[in-house]
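A quick aside before the break. I want you to see a complete sequence-to-structure record at least once, exactly as it would be stored in a machine-readable document. Don't worry about memorizing anything.
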Amino acid sequence: MFVIGTAGHVDHGKSSLILALTGIDPDRLPEEKQRGMTIDLGFAWLKLPNGQEVGIVDVPGHERFIKNMIAGVGAIDGVIFVVAADDGWMPQSQEHLDILKLLRIKKGVIALTKVDLVIEDWLKLMEEDIKLKVKNSFLENSPIIKVSSTGNIGLEELKQALMEMFSEMEPPKDIDKPRLFIDRVFTMTGRGTIVTGTLALGNLTLGQEVEILPQKVTARIRNIQTHKKDLKFASPGSRVALNLSGIEKEKLSRGNVILNSNFGKVGTILQAQVEVLPDLKLPLKQGSQVQILLGTQEVLERVYILEKEKLEPGEIGLVELKAKEEMTAFVGDRFILRYPGPQITIGGGVVLDPEPLPNIKKEAKIQYLSKRINLQLPDLILSELEKRNCIQPSELLQNIHFSEQEIRNELEKLKSQNLIVTIPDGVVLSQKWKEIAQRIQNELQTEHRQHSYKLGLTLAELASRLKIEEKFSQELINFLLKAKQIAQRGAFLSLSDFNPQLSQSQRKVEQIIWDKFNSSPLTPPTKEELLKQNSEFETVLYFLLQQNQLIELTEGILFKTAEFEKIKSKVIDLMQQKGKVTVGEVKEHLATTRKYAVPILEKLDQLEITKRVGDYRILNSVA
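That is the input. The structure line, written in C-alpha coordinates, reads:
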Protein backbone atom coordinates (compact mmCIF):
# COMPACT_ATOMS: atom_id res chain seq x y z
CA MET A 1 0.00 0.00 0.00
CA PHE A 2 1.17 3.54 -0.78
CA VAL A 3 0.52 6.97 0.70
CA ILE A 4 0.43 10.13 -1.38
CA GLY A 5 0.49 13.72 -0.14
CA THR A 6 -0.68 16.99 -1.55
CA ALA A 7 1.54 20.06 -1.87
CA GLY A 8 1.09 23.57 -3.18
CA HIS A 9 0.23 27.18 -2.33
CA VAL A 10 -2.64 28.15 -0.07
CA ASP A 11 -6.09 28.28 -1.74
CA HIS A 12 -4.97 26.44 -4.86
CA GLY A 13 -7.62 23.79 -4.35
CA LYS A 14 -5.77 20.89 -2.70
CA SER A 15 -8.57 19.92 -0.29
CA SER A 16 -11.28 20.48 -2.90
CA LEU A 17 -9.40 18.20 -5.28
CA ILE A 18 -9.17 15.45 -2.64
CA LEU A 19 -12.89 15.78 -1.93
CA ALA A 20 -13.67 15.53 -5.65
CA LEU A 21 -11.38 12.49 -6.07
CA THR A 22 -12.46 10.56 -2.98
CA GLY A 23 -15.76 11.94 -1.69
CA ILE A 24 -14.00 12.52 1.65
CA ASP A 25 -13.57 16.05 2.98
CA PRO A 26 -10.06 16.24 4.47
CA ASP A 27 -10.82 19.53 6.26
CA ARG A 28 -11.94 18.23 9.67
CA LEU A 29 -11.51 21.27 11.96
CA PRO A 30 -14.37 23.79 12.44
CA GLU A 31 -11.89 26.63 11.88
CA GLU A 32 -10.91 25.10 8.53
CA LYS A 33 -14.57 24.98 7.49
CA GLN A 34 -15.11 28.58 8.59
CA ARG A 35 -11.99 30.00 6.93
CA GLY A 36 -12.06 27.77 3.86
CA MET A 37 -8.38 27.06 4.41
CA THR A 38 -6.55 23.92 5.54
CA ILE A 39 -4.70 24.51 8.80
CA ASP A 40 -3.72 21.02 9.86
CA LEU A 41 -3.33 17.66 8.20
CA GLY A 42 -6.32 16.01 6.56
CA PHE A 43 -6.68 12.38 5.57
CA ALA A 44 -8.54 10.40 2.93
CA TRP A 45 -8.08 7.41 0.67
CA LEU A 46 -8.62 6.73 -2.98
CA LYS A 47 -9.38 3.61 -5.02
CA LEU A 48 -7.51 3.73 -8.33
CA PRO A 49 -8.84 2.28 -11.64
CA ASN A 50 -6.93 -0.99 -11.05
CA GLY A 51 -8.58 -1.45 -7.63
CA GLN A 52 -5.50 -0.39 -5.68
CA GLU A 53 -6.19 1.73 -2.59
CA VAL A 54 -3.83 4.56 -1.64
CA GLY A 55 -3.87 6.74 1.43
CA ILE A 56 -3.87 10.51 1.04
CA VAL A 57 -2.45 13.15 3.37
CA ASP A 58 -3.74 16.64 2.61
CA VAL A 59 -1.40 19.37 3.85
CA PRO A 60 -1.91 23.08 4.50
CA GLY A 61 -0.52 25.54 2.00
CA HIS A 62 -0.30 28.68 4.11
CA GLU A 63 3.22 29.73 5.13
CA ARG A 64 2.19 29.85 8.81
CA PHE A 65 1.41 26.11 8.73
CA ILE A 66 4.53 24.86 6.94
CA LYS A 67 5.47 22.75 9.97
CA ASN A 68 2.16 20.90 9.61
CA MET A 69 2.86 20.44 5.92
CA ILE A 70 6.26 18.89 6.72
CA ALA A 71 4.67 16.57 9.30
CA GLY A 72 2.36 15.33 6.55
CA VAL A 73 4.85 14.75 3.74
CA GLY A 74 7.61 13.13 5.80
CA ALA A 75 6.33 9.60 5.18
CA ILE A 76 4.69 9.82 1.75
CA ASP A 77 5.64 7.80 -1.33
CA GLY A 78 4.65 10.41 -3.89
CA VAL A 79 2.93 13.77 -4.27
CA ILE A 80 0.07 15.48 -6.06
CA PHE A 81 1.63 18.89 -6.62
CA VAL A 82 -1.20 21.40 -6.99
CA VAL A 83 -0.91 24.69 -8.88
CA ALA A 84 -3.99 26.84 -9.53
CA ALA A 85 -4.37 27.94 -13.16
CA ASP A 86 -5.64 31.41 -12.19
CA ASP A 87 -2.81 32.18 -9.71
CA GLY A 88 0.04 30.23 -11.23
CA TRP A 89 3.28 29.54 -9.40
CA MET A 90 3.32 31.25 -5.97
CA PRO A 91 5.72 31.58 -2.99
CA GLN A 92 4.45 28.48 -1.16
CA SER A 93 4.54 26.53 -4.42
CA GLN A 94 8.28 27.10 -4.42
CA GLU A 95 8.72 26.47 -0.69
CA HIS A 96 6.75 23.22 -0.89
CA LEU A 97 8.83 22.08 -3.87
CA ASP A 98 12.03 22.93 -1.97
CA ILE A 99 10.85 20.91 1.03
CA LEU A 100 9.89 17.91 -1.13
CA LYS A 101 13.30 17.99 -2.80
CA LEU A 102 15.06 18.20 0.56
CA LEU A 103 13.06 15.21 1.80
CA ARG A 104 14.06 13.35 -1.38
CA ILE A 105 10.49 12.64 -2.53
CA LYS A 106 11.04 10.94 -5.89
CA LYS A 107 7.68 10.69 -7.63
CA GLY A 108 4.83 13.05 -8.28
CA VAL A 109 1.99 14.17 -10.54
CA ILE A 110 1.26 17.86 -11.16
CA ALA A 111 -2.42 18.87 -10.92
CA LEU A 112 -3.17 22.19 -12.66
CA THR A 113 -6.42 23.11 -10.89
CA LYS A 114 -9.23 25.60 -11.59
CA VAL A 115 -8.71 25.26 -15.34
CA ASP A 116 -12.35 26.21 -15.96
CA LEU A 117 -11.59 29.72 -14.65
CA VAL A 118 -9.06 30.71 -17.32
CA ILE A 119 -8.81 30.88 -21.10
CA GLU A 120 -6.82 28.35 -23.14
CA ASP A 121 -3.96 30.72 -23.97
CA TRP A 122 -3.43 31.53 -20.30
CA LEU A 123 -3.50 27.82 -19.52
CA LYS A 124 -0.70 27.18 -22.00
CA LEU A 125 1.37 29.94 -20.41
CA MET A 126 0.84 28.40 -16.96
CA GLU A 127 1.90 24.97 -18.22
CA GLU A 128 5.14 26.36 -19.67
CA ASP A 129 5.86 28.30 -16.48
CA ILE A 130 5.32 25.21 -14.33
CA LYS A 131 7.69 23.18 -16.53
CA LEU A 132 10.30 25.88 -16.09
CA LYS A 133 9.82 26.00 -12.31
CA VAL A 134 10.15 22.21 -11.83
CA LYS A 135 13.12 21.82 -14.17
CA ASN A 136 15.99 19.84 -12.59
CA SER A 137 13.65 18.53 -9.89
CA PHE A 138 11.98 15.13 -9.40
CA LEU A 139 8.85 16.66 -11.04
CA GLU A 140 10.65 17.61 -14.28
CA ASN A 141 9.17 14.74 -16.30
CA SER A 142 5.94 14.39 -14.34
CA PRO A 143 2.64 14.68 -16.21
CA ILE A 144 0.64 17.91 -15.80
CA ILE A 145 -3.03 17.01 -15.49
CA LYS A 146 -5.56 19.80 -16.06
CA VAL A 147 -8.38 19.48 -13.53
CA SER A 148 -11.38 21.28 -12.11
CA SER A 149 -12.81 19.98 -8.85
CA THR A 150 -16.08 21.84 -9.31
CA GLY A 151 -16.39 21.16 -13.04
CA ASN A 152 -15.46 17.47 -12.76
CA ILE A 153 -12.70 17.94 -15.32
CA GLY A 154 -9.62 15.71 -15.52
CA LEU A 155 -10.30 13.63 -12.38
CA GLU A 156 -10.19 10.28 -14.17
CA GLU A 157 -7.02 11.31 -16.01
CA LEU A 158 -5.46 12.21 -12.64
CA LYS A 159 -6.38 8.82 -11.19
CA GLN A 160 -4.86 7.13 -14.23
CA ALA A 161 -1.65 9.15 -13.87
CA LEU A 162 -1.43 8.20 -10.20
CA MET A 163 -1.96 4.53 -11.03
CA GLU A 164 0.86 4.66 -13.61
CA MET A 165 3.13 6.43 -11.14
CA PHE A 166 2.60 3.78 -8.46
CA SER A 167 3.05 0.95 -10.95
CA GLU A 168 6.65 2.11 -11.44
CA MET A 169 7.40 2.17 -7.71
CA GLU A 170 8.84 -0.56 -5.51
CA PRO A 171 6.55 -1.61 -2.63
CA PRO A 172 7.28 0.16 0.68
CA LYS A 173 10.27 -1.44 2.40
CA ASP A 174 9.58 -4.05 5.08
CA ILE A 175 12.64 -4.59 7.29
CA ASP A 176 10.76 -5.81 10.38
CA LYS A 177 11.37 -2.51 12.19
CA PRO A 178 7.89 -0.96 12.28
CA ARG A 179 7.83 2.75 13.00
CA LEU A 180 4.89 5.13 13.09
CA PHE A 181 5.22 8.87 13.65
CA ILE A 182 2.01 9.93 15.37
CA ASP A 183 0.20 12.77 13.60
CA ARG A 184 -3.13 12.66 15.48
CA VAL A 185 -4.21 11.64 18.98
CA PHE A 186 -7.85 11.48 20.06
CA THR A 187 -10.35 9.38 22.02
CA MET A 188 -13.59 7.69 21.05
CA THR A 189 -16.32 6.73 23.50
CA GLY A 190 -16.00 3.08 24.43
CA ARG A 191 -12.65 2.69 22.69
CA GLY A 192 -10.22 4.95 24.51
CA THR A 193 -6.97 6.27 23.05
CA ILE A 194 -6.53 6.32 19.28
CA VAL A 195 -3.47 7.47 17.33
CA THR A 196 -2.95 7.79 13.59
CA GLY A 197 0.08 7.94 11.34
CA THR A 198 1.76 6.45 8.31
CA LEU A 199 3.34 3.08 9.09
CA ALA A 200 6.83 2.46 7.70
CA LEU A 201 9.54 -0.23 7.70
CA GLY A 202 7.51 -3.14 9.14
CA ASN A 203 4.20 -4.63 10.24
CA LEU A 204 2.18 -3.91 13.37
CA THR A 205 -0.02 -6.73 14.69
CA LEU A 206 -3.20 -6.88 16.74
CA GLY A 207 -2.36 -7.49 20.40
CA GLN A 208 1.27 -6.47 19.96
CA GLU A 209 3.04 -4.54 22.72
CA VAL A 210 4.68 -1.38 21.39
CA GLU A 211 6.93 1.29 22.84
CA ILE A 212 6.20 4.99 22.54
CA LEU A 213 9.09 7.44 22.42
CA PRO A 214 10.44 9.72 23.73
CA GLN A 215 8.36 8.90 26.84
CA LYS A 216 9.64 5.29 26.87
CA VAL A 217 6.22 3.95 27.82
CA THR A 218 4.51 0.84 26.49
CA ALA A 219 0.99 0.16 25.25
CA ARG A 220 -0.85 -2.71 23.58
CA ILE A 221 -2.60 -2.55 20.21
CA ARG A 222 -6.28 -3.24 20.85
CA ASN A 223 -7.47 -2.57 17.32
CA ILE A 224 -6.03 -1.62 13.91
CA GLN A 225 -7.88 0.21 11.15
CA THR A 226 -6.89 1.27 7.66
CA HIS A 227 -9.43 3.19 5.57
CA LYS A 228 -12.08 2.38 8.23
CA LYS A 229 -11.52 -1.38 7.89
CA ASP A 230 -10.54 -3.49 10.92
CA LEU A 231 -7.32 -5.43 10.33
CA LYS A 232 -5.31 -8.13 12.11
CA PHE A 233 -2.09 -6.45 11.01
CA ALA A 234 -1.00 -3.33 9.17
CA SER A 235 1.70 -3.26 6.49
CA PRO A 236 4.33 -0.60 5.78
CA GLY A 237 3.01 2.17 3.56
CA SER A 238 -0.43 2.13 5.23
CA ARG A 239 -2.30 5.01 6.79
CA VAL A 240 -3.11 3.44 10.15
CA ALA A 241 -5.35 4.16 13.14
CA LEU A 242 -4.30 2.28 16.28
CA ASN A 243 -6.56 1.83 19.29
CA LEU A 244 -4.10 1.60 22.21
CA SER A 245 -4.74 0.14 25.63
CA GLY A 246 -2.71 0.86 28.72
CA ILE A 247 -2.06 4.53 27.98
CA GLU A 248 -4.08 7.73 28.31
CA LYS A 249 -4.57 10.26 25.52
CA GLU A 250 -3.05 13.02 27.67
CA LYS A 251 0.30 11.22 27.69
CA LEU A 252 0.58 11.28 23.89
CA SER A 253 0.97 13.97 21.26
CA ARG A 254 1.92 14.54 17.65
CA GLY A 255 5.62 13.85 17.25
CA ASN A 256 5.64 10.75 19.46
CA VAL A 257 6.92 7.62 17.75
CA ILE A 258 5.62 4.05 17.99
CA LEU A 259 8.09 1.18 17.55
CA ASN A 260 8.63 -2.43 18.57
CA SER A 261 8.96 -2.71 22.33
CA ASN A 262 12.55 -2.25 23.66
CA PHE A 263 13.75 -1.28 20.20
CA GLY A 264 14.00 2.47 19.81
CA LYS A 265 16.49 4.91 21.28
CA VAL A 266 16.15 8.57 22.14
CA GLY A 267 18.74 11.28 22.47
CA THR A 268 19.44 14.97 22.23
CA ILE A 269 22.35 14.87 19.77
CA LEU A 270 22.28 14.07 16.05
CA GLN A 271 25.16 13.92 13.57
CA ALA A 272 24.01 14.94 10.11
CA GLN A 273 24.74 16.36 6.71
CA VAL A 274 22.86 19.58 6.01
CA GLU A 275 22.02 21.27 2.71
CA VAL A 276 21.23 25.00 2.79
CA LEU A 277 18.69 26.26 0.24
CA PRO A 278 20.37 28.26 -2.56
CA ASP A 279 17.92 31.17 -2.32
CA LEU A 280 18.30 31.66 1.45
CA LYS A 281 19.26 35.30 2.00
CA LEU A 282 21.75 34.73 4.85
CA PRO A 283 24.23 31.94 5.69
CA LEU A 284 23.58 29.36 8.39
CA LYS A 285 25.93 30.43 11.18
CA GLN A 286 27.74 28.47 13.87
CA GLY A 287 25.58 27.94 16.97
CA SER A 288 22.35 29.13 15.34
CA GLN A 289 19.14 28.03 16.99
CA VAL A 290 17.07 26.08 14.51
CA GLN A 291 13.94 23.99 14.44
CA ILE A 292 14.35 20.42 13.22
CA LEU A 293 11.28 18.76 11.71
CA LEU A 294 11.75 15.00 11.37
CA GLY A 295 8.71 12.83 10.76
CA THR A 296 6.09 14.54 12.91
CA GLN A 297 8.67 15.57 15.52
CA GLU A 298 9.43 19.24 16.01
CA VAL A 299 12.39 20.12 18.26
CA LEU A 300 14.55 23.20 18.86
CA GLU A 301 18.26 22.57 18.28
CA ARG A 302 21.59 24.35 18.17
CA VAL A 303 23.56 23.67 15.03
CA TYR A 304 27.34 23.21 15.25
CA ILE A 305 29.02 23.18 11.86
CA LEU A 306 32.05 20.89 11.82
CA GLU A 307 34.00 21.93 8.73
CA LYS A 308 33.70 25.74 8.86
CA GLU A 309 32.07 28.58 10.76
CA LYS A 310 29.06 29.03 8.49
CA LEU A 311 27.28 27.44 5.54
CA GLU A 312 26.48 29.81 2.68
CA PRO A 313 23.25 29.47 0.63
CA GLY A 314 23.55 26.39 -1.59
CA GLU A 315 26.35 24.81 0.48
CA ILE A 316 26.36 21.36 2.04
CA GLY A 317 28.16 20.56 5.29
CA LEU A 318 28.51 18.17 8.21
CA VAL A 319 26.94 19.30 11.47
CA GLU A 320 26.18 18.23 15.01
CA LEU A 321 22.68 19.12 16.21
CA LYS A 322 22.09 19.47 19.95
CA ALA A 323 18.43 19.49 20.98
CA LYS A 324 16.65 20.85 24.01
CA GLU A 325 14.36 17.81 24.10
CA GLU A 326 14.82 14.13 23.39
CA MET A 327 13.90 12.82 19.96
CA THR A 328 14.29 9.60 18.01
CA ALA A 329 15.79 9.06 14.57
CA PHE A 330 17.19 6.39 12.26
CA VAL A 331 20.35 6.64 10.19
CA GLY A 332 19.18 7.88 6.78
CA ASP A 333 16.16 9.84 8.04
CA ARG A 334 15.56 13.08 6.16
CA PHE A 335 14.61 16.26 7.98
CA ILE A 336 13.91 19.95 7.43
CA LEU A 337 15.61 22.85 9.24
CA ARG A 338 13.76 26.11 9.85
CA TYR A 339 14.40 29.23 11.86
CA PRO A 340 11.91 29.30 14.77
CA GLY A 341 11.18 32.99 14.31
CA PRO A 342 10.64 34.31 11.74
CA GLN A 343 9.47 31.00 10.21
CA ILE A 344 11.93 30.53 7.34
CA THR A 345 12.99 27.24 5.79
CA ILE A 346 16.80 27.03 5.96
CA GLY A 347 17.29 23.72 4.23
CA GLY A 348 17.26 20.05 5.06
CA GLY A 349 19.48 17.17 5.77
CA VAL A 350 20.01 13.51 6.49
CA VAL A 351 20.80 11.81 9.80
CA LEU A 352 24.22 10.12 9.64
CA ASP A 353 24.31 9.04 13.27
CA PRO A 354 21.49 9.57 15.80
CA GLU A 355 23.84 9.16 18.75
CA PRO A 356 26.56 11.33 20.28
CA LEU A 357 30.08 10.48 19.12
CA PRO A 358 32.89 9.61 21.54
CA ASN A 359 34.96 12.48 22.87
CA ILE A 360 37.13 12.78 19.76
CA LYS A 361 38.63 15.70 17.87
CA LYS A 362 36.61 17.55 15.25
CA GLU A 363 38.78 16.19 12.42
CA ALA A 364 38.05 12.62 13.54
CA LYS A 365 34.30 13.37 13.61
CA ILE A 366 34.45 14.74 10.07
CA GLN A 367 36.37 11.69 8.87
CA TYR A 368 33.88 9.33 10.55
CA LEU A 369 30.76 11.08 9.21
CA SER A 370 32.22 11.44 5.71
CA LYS A 371 32.32 7.64 5.47
CA ARG A 372 28.57 7.49 6.11
CA ILE A 373 27.34 10.13 3.65
CA ASN A 374 26.42 7.65 0.89
CA LEU A 375 24.40 5.55 3.39
CA GLN A 376 25.74 2.32 1.89
CA LEU A 377 25.47 -0.63 4.27
CA PRO A 378 29.15 -1.73 4.16
CA ASP A 379 30.29 1.84 4.91
CA LEU A 380 27.80 2.17 7.75
CA ILE A 381 28.84 -1.13 9.34
CA LEU A 382 32.56 -0.43 9.09
CA SER A 383 32.25 3.11 10.41
CA GLU A 384 30.01 1.92 13.27
CA LEU A 385 32.65 -0.63 14.24
CA GLU A 386 35.24 2.17 14.25
CA LYS A 387 33.16 3.86 16.93
CA ARG A 388 32.81 0.74 19.09
CA ASN A 389 35.31 -1.98 19.92
CA CYS A 390 32.90 -4.89 19.74
CA ILE A 391 29.16 -5.27 19.17
CA GLN A 392 26.70 -8.12 18.76
CA PRO A 393 25.27 -8.44 15.21
CA SER A 394 21.72 -8.29 16.63
CA GLU A 395 22.53 -4.91 18.24
CA LEU A 396 24.46 -3.49 15.28
CA LEU A 397 22.74 -0.54 13.61
CA GLN A 398 19.26 -1.25 14.93
CA ASN A 399 18.28 2.32 14.05
CA ILE A 400 18.90 2.03 10.31
CA HIS A 401 16.85 1.43 7.17
CA PHE A 402 18.19 -2.12 6.69
CA SER A 403 16.90 -5.39 8.12
CA GLU A 404 18.81 -7.56 10.58
CA GLN A 405 19.18 -10.20 7.85
CA GLU A 406 20.61 -7.66 5.39
CA ILE A 407 23.13 -6.65 8.06
CA ARG A 408 24.09 -10.28 8.79
CA ASN A 409 24.55 -11.00 5.06
CA GLU A 410 26.80 -7.96 4.72
CA LEU A 411 28.80 -9.04 7.76
CA GLU A 412 29.51 -12.37 6.07
CA LYS A 413 30.81 -10.52 2.99
CA LEU A 414 33.01 -8.26 5.10
CA LYS A 415 34.35 -11.30 6.98
CA SER A 416 35.24 -13.04 3.70
CA GLN A 417 37.15 -9.88 2.72
CA ASN A 418 39.08 -10.03 6.05
CA LEU A 419 37.72 -6.63 7.04
CA ILE A 420 36.08 -7.86 10.25
CA VAL A 421 36.68 -10.54 12.88
CA THR A 422 33.81 -12.42 14.53
CA ILE A 423 34.21 -13.51 18.15
CA PRO A 424 31.72 -15.02 20.63
CA ASP A 425 30.88 -11.59 22.01
CA GLY A 426 30.35 -9.92 18.64
CA VAL A 427 32.03 -8.34 15.64
CA VAL A 428 35.29 -6.35 15.52
CA LEU A 429 37.12 -4.48 12.79
CA SER A 430 40.16 -6.53 11.71
CA GLN A 431 42.35 -3.44 11.81
CA LYS A 432 41.12 -2.51 15.29
CA TRP A 433 41.61 -6.10 16.45
CA LYS A 434 45.26 -5.97 15.33
CA GLU A 435 45.79 -2.49 16.79
CA ILE A 436 44.44 -3.39 20.23
CA ALA A 437 46.34 -6.70 20.24
CA GLN A 438 49.51 -4.68 19.62
CA ARG A 439 48.53 -2.19 22.33
CA ILE A 440 48.16 -5.07 24.80
CA GLN A 441 51.68 -6.28 23.99
CA ASN A 442 53.05 -2.73 24.19
CA GLU A 443 51.36 -2.20 27.57
CA LEU A 444 52.84 -5.44 28.93
CA GLN A 445 56.27 -4.51 27.60
CA THR A 446 56.06 -1.13 29.37
CA GLU A 447 54.95 -2.82 32.58
CA HIS A 448 57.84 -5.31 32.41
CA ARG A 449 60.33 -2.50 31.84
CA GLN A 450 59.03 -0.35 34.70
CA HIS A 451 58.29 -3.17 37.17
CA SER A 452 60.54 -6.09 36.26
CA TYR A 453 59.81 -7.77 39.61
CA LYS A 454 56.08 -8.17 38.83
CA LEU A 455 54.52 -11.12 37.04
CA GLY A 456 52.64 -8.73 34.75
CA LEU A 457 49.11 -7.28 34.70
CA THR A 458 45.68 -8.71 35.42
CA LEU A 459 42.96 -8.64 32.79
CA ALA A 460 41.12 -5.92 34.71
CA GLU A 461 44.26 -3.77 34.88
CA LEU A 462 44.84 -4.16 31.13
CA ALA A 463 41.25 -3.32 30.26
CA SER A 464 41.36 -0.24 32.48
CA ARG A 465 44.62 1.04 30.98
CA LEU A 466 43.47 0.48 27.41
CA LYS A 467 39.96 1.79 28.15
CA ILE A 468 38.25 -1.23 26.57
CA GLU A 469 35.58 -3.62 27.81
CA GLU A 470 36.88 -6.50 29.95
CA LYS A 471 34.87 -9.10 27.96
CA PHE A 472 36.38 -7.83 24.71
CA SER A 473 39.84 -7.84 26.31
CA GLN A 474 39.37 -11.48 27.29
CA GLU A 475 38.71 -12.46 23.66
CA LEU A 476 41.90 -10.72 22.58
CA ILE A 477 43.85 -12.33 25.43
CA ASN A 478 42.62 -15.78 24.37
CA PHE A 479 43.74 -15.02 20.81
CA LEU A 480 47.20 -13.86 21.95
CA LEU A 481 47.59 -16.84 24.32
CA LYS A 482 46.73 -19.24 21.51
CA ALA A 483 49.27 -17.49 19.29
CA LYS A 484 51.82 -17.78 22.16
CA GLN A 485 52.50 -14.06 22.00
CA ILE A 486 51.66 -13.70 25.69
CA ALA A 487 51.66 -16.05 28.69
CA GLN A 488 49.44 -16.41 31.75
CA ARG A 489 50.59 -17.19 35.30
CA GLY A 490 47.58 -17.43 37.55
CA ALA A 491 45.71 -14.13 37.25
CA PHE A 492 48.68 -12.36 35.66
CA LEU A 493 49.46 -11.84 31.98
CA SER A 494 52.91 -11.21 30.55
CA LEU A 495 54.84 -11.40 27.32
CA SER A 496 55.61 -15.03 26.54
CA ASP A 497 59.40 -14.65 26.96
CA PHE A 498 59.25 -12.61 30.18
CA ASN A 499 60.46 -13.80 33.59
CA PRO A 500 60.25 -11.52 36.62
CA GLN A 501 63.56 -10.63 38.22
CA LEU A 502 64.99 -8.40 40.92
CA SER A 503 67.66 -5.76 40.50
CA GLN A 504 71.07 -6.14 42.12
CA SER A 505 70.12 -3.95 45.09
CA GLN A 506 66.84 -5.82 45.48
CA ARG A 507 68.74 -9.14 45.50
CA LYS A 508 70.67 -7.91 48.55
CA VAL A 509 67.39 -7.10 50.31
CA GLU A 510 66.08 -10.56 49.36
CA GLN A 511 69.06 -12.17 51.10
CA ILE A 512 68.45 -10.11 54.25
CA ILE A 513 64.83 -11.31 54.29
CA TRP A 514 65.84 -14.97 53.85
CA ASP A 515 68.37 -14.64 56.66
CA LYS A 516 65.62 -13.41 59.01
CA PHE A 517 63.26 -16.25 58.02
CA ASN A 518 65.95 -18.92 58.26
CA SER A 519 67.06 -17.79 61.72
CA SER A 520 63.54 -18.23 63.19
CA PRO A 521 61.45 -20.36 60.79
CA LEU A 522 58.50 -20.84 63.21
CA THR A 523 58.44 -17.26 64.52
CA PRO A 524 59.47 -15.26 61.44
CA PRO A 525 59.24 -11.45 61.10
CA THR A 526 55.81 -10.07 60.24
CA LYS A 527 55.08 -8.05 57.12
CA GLU A 528 54.77 -4.87 59.19
CA GLU A 529 58.19 -5.42 60.77
CA LEU A 530 59.85 -5.94 57.39
CA LEU A 531 58.23 -2.92 55.77
CA LYS A 532 59.74 -0.67 58.45
CA GLN A 533 63.23 -1.40 57.07
CA ASN A 534 63.13 0.61 53.79
CA SER A 535 61.10 1.03 50.59
CA GLU A 536 62.96 -1.77 48.76
CA PHE A 537 61.53 -4.31 51.22
CA GLU A 538 57.99 -3.73 49.93
CA THR A 539 59.05 -4.43 46.33
CA VAL A 540 60.96 -7.58 47.27
CA LEU A 541 58.13 -8.88 49.47
CA TYR A 542 55.69 -8.34 46.59
CA PHE A 543 58.04 -10.34 44.35
CA LEU A 544 58.44 -13.21 46.80
CA LEU A 545 54.71 -13.44 47.46
CA GLN A 546 53.97 -13.28 43.75
CA GLN A 547 56.55 -16.02 43.10
CA ASN A 548 54.88 -18.11 45.82
CA GLN A 549 58.12 -18.30 47.80
CA LEU A 550 56.37 -16.67 50.76
CA ILE A 551 52.81 -17.16 51.96
CA GLU A 552 50.81 -14.49 53.81
CA LEU A 553 48.40 -15.38 56.61
CA THR A 554 46.06 -13.11 58.57
CA GLU A 555 47.48 -10.32 60.75
CA GLY A 556 50.38 -9.89 58.30
CA ILE A 557 52.02 -13.16 59.38
CA LEU A 558 54.46 -14.49 56.75
CA PHE A 559 56.04 -17.91 56.32
CA LYS A 560 58.36 -19.40 53.77
CA THR A 561 56.09 -21.48 51.57
CA ALA A 562 58.19 -24.61 52.08
CA GLU A 563 58.09 -24.06 55.85
CA PHE A 564 54.32 -23.64 55.85
CA GLU A 565 53.95 -26.99 54.02
CA LYS A 566 55.91 -28.64 56.87
CA ILE A 567 53.69 -26.89 59.45
CA LYS A 568 50.56 -28.04 57.61
CA SER A 569 51.76 -31.67 57.69
CA LYS A 570 52.55 -31.45 61.42
CA VAL A 571 49.07 -30.07 62.23
CA ILE A 572 47.36 -32.76 60.16
CA ASP A 573 49.45 -35.47 61.93
CA LEU A 574 48.46 -34.04 65.32
CA MET A 575 44.75 -34.01 64.44
CA GLN A 576 44.90 -37.55 63.07
CA GLN A 577 46.35 -38.64 66.45
CA LYS A 578 43.99 -36.67 68.72
CA GLY A 579 40.86 -36.17 66.59
CA LYS A 580 40.40 -32.61 67.79
CA VAL A 581 42.88 -29.98 69.01
CA THR A 582 42.91 -26.54 70.63
CA VAL A 583 44.98 -23.53 69.66
CA GLY A 584 47.14 -24.16 72.72
CA GLU A 585 47.86 -27.74 71.68
CA VAL A 586 48.90 -26.63 68.19
CA LYS A 587 51.09 -23.90 69.69
CA GLU A 588 52.93 -26.42 71.86
CA HIS A 589 53.18 -29.01 69.09
CA LEU A 590 54.80 -26.46 66.71
CA ALA A 591 56.92 -24.83 69.43
CA THR A 592 55.62 -21.40 68.44
CA THR A 593 53.46 -18.71 70.02
CA ARG A 594 49.71 -17.98 69.91
CA LYS A 595 50.54 -15.00 67.66
CA TYR A 596 51.45 -17.51 64.94
CA ALA A 597 49.30 -20.50 65.87
CA VAL A 598 45.97 -18.67 65.40
CA PRO A 599 46.75 -17.37 61.85
CA ILE A 600 48.12 -20.84 60.92
CA LEU A 601 44.82 -22.49 61.91
CA GLU A 602 42.77 -19.75 60.23
CA LYS A 603 44.70 -20.31 57.01
CA LEU A 604 44.08 -24.07 57.22
CA ASP A 605 40.37 -23.31 57.77
CA GLN A 606 40.45 -21.08 54.70
CA LEU A 607 42.09 -23.87 52.69
CA GLU A 608 39.29 -26.18 53.98
CA ILE A 609 41.83 -28.55 55.50
CA THR A 610 40.50 -27.92 59.02
CA LYS A 611 37.23 -26.78 60.48
CA ARG A 612 36.50 -24.91 63.72
CA VAL A 613 33.98 -26.49 66.09
CA GLY A 614 33.65 -24.37 69.22
CA ASP A 615 37.11 -24.05 70.79
CA TYR A 616 38.45 -27.02 68.82
CA ARG A 617 39.73 -27.70 65.33
CA ILE A 618 39.05 -30.96 63.49
CA LEU A 619 40.08 -32.18 60.06
CA ASN A 620 37.56 -31.10 57.47
CA SER A 621 37.32 -34.66 56.07
CA VAL A 622 36.06 -35.83 59.47
CA ALA A 623 33.40 -33.11 59.54
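Two observations worth writing down. Residues 3 and 76 are 5 Å apart (CA to CA). The first strand starts at residue 2 and ends at 7. We'll return to this after the break.
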